[in-house]
Input
Amino acid sequence: MESKIIAKGDIQIEYYTSGAGPQNIICMHGHGRPVDDFIFLNDTDHKLILIVLPHHGNSKFPIEKIEKDPLSIIEFNQLFEQILDVESINDFHFVAFSQGGRFVLSLIPFHDGKIKSVHLISPDAMDYNSFYNKASRNRWARKLFKSWEDKPQRFIKFARIAKRLGLVRPKVFAFIQKFASNKESFQRASITWRGFRNIRPINDELKKVIARNDWRFVIIMGKYDQVIRTLQAESFLKKISQQDALIVIECGHDFFKEGNIDLLRPHIKI
Output
């Protein structure tokens, strides 16, 4: 894969290209995940554009701006359009996982005439009023998380108490432990949670765009996923009048685990 960098002001985005087929697939990874999760889509018919989200790899957003001037979808879209220009892309398919799905759902209204299909795998931000999303918009909650960045074990203790009180599900607690297992991974989790709080879909706009197009739009969920649950997808799809867009496969949030890709692959029809 070839790595490339584009920038605007103090924001920088890294992306990779792979293949040279006539059809373009633009992929966005999940939190803490590598872009090569999507290499299974590589074939002679497609060119992959694998976008690295801010605070991952060599994609950068100023940490000092997070509190007062967090990343907006307008800023991200300006960089996204630079990628389209550099790569001479006139139309494309979207494939995204988890946190990457948050960005794709927000970008769709900007690229109505260019999209050929949308495949979202357990996308983040479907429930803007969830505790997770509401807390990110609370200044004191953000301040508390920032205070834990140097000592993530304190956050694990807090989450353990919340689990005992029934406020956090066991599998969510296991997910928390994974990302709070070391200082670097927890810092990135905290920074993206705080910094991406304004990246969210506008449901009314999304509903209109999907309704006036005949491209494939699907959300693929894991039956046993406790990080982002199928119930959230069902509620979200009802709001945008796309109840038939839900696909559920036999896995958890580990879609790219060996074996699970074989369950995922048949549903990405490009």
Remarks:
- The mean pLDDT is 92.
- Residues 2-127+199-267 form a domain with the Rossmann fold fold (CATH 3.40.50.1820).
- The CA atoms of residues 255 and 261 lie 6 Å apart.
